[in-house]
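If your schedule permits, I should be very grateful for your opinion on a structural question. I have a record of one protein: its chain in single-letter code and its fold written as discrete structure tokens. Kindly check, if you would, that the fold set down in the tokens agrees with what the sequence suggests. I remain grateful for any guidance, and I place the record below:

***
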Amino acid sequence: MSLSSDEGSELSIGHCSVCGHLTELVELPGKVEKFCFECSADVATASLLITEIDAATLAGRDANKLVAECSEISSRILERAQSPELGF
């Protein structure tokens, strides 16, 4: 479902692809899925971290701190995805 806002842009309302909550959704570049604001922030951050981890690894730099941060965010995403409090 889409709603028009006062500014003329469309707001997409539906279920988040991660947590399942019925809310306003965000589209991320390169992703087919749509996410709530909280999940979209984590998914976008995880994607950027993965890119930075790859770049650091290819350059022979230590990526341990980036890997730890990515692991923390990934755990948060997984926890939200497995939450029994889905908005269905």
Summary: Residues 45 and 59 are 21 Å apart (CA to CA). DSSP finds two helices and four strands in the chain.
